[in-house]
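Might I ask for a little of your time on a matter of protein folding? Here, with my thanks, is the record as I have it:
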Amino acid sequence: MQGKHLYEYATIRVLPKVEREEFVNVGVILFSKKAKFIKMLYHVDESKLNVFSKEWDFDLLYSILDSFRKIANGEKEGGVIASFDIPERFRWLTAVRSSCIQTSRPHPGFSDNLEETTQKLFEELVL
């Protein structure tokens, strides 16, 4: 039997050289409209990114990822977008971008425990 919560998730990717379209997964965002749930987890493996390029501004990268987290969590420090409702925040975070930080297309699933599912996806796709 399928889980009771329909969810969508996307991976957060860093593209060291956007024009080459190579990426490293650094996070996941999981959202369930009915459960009113959204969670973002991230981890940057600096050594992995340094394989692609030595020109990283890691402080800036962490700052941007932390902004994503604040928006996902609806924190006031996340700005106007963080005040949107959960589905709008997820759609904004997963909108198509041509920058060095992008997300995958959202993927659906079912879960009985959204926290556990988020952690499992994070471990499988990022760590």
In short: The mean pLDDT is 95.
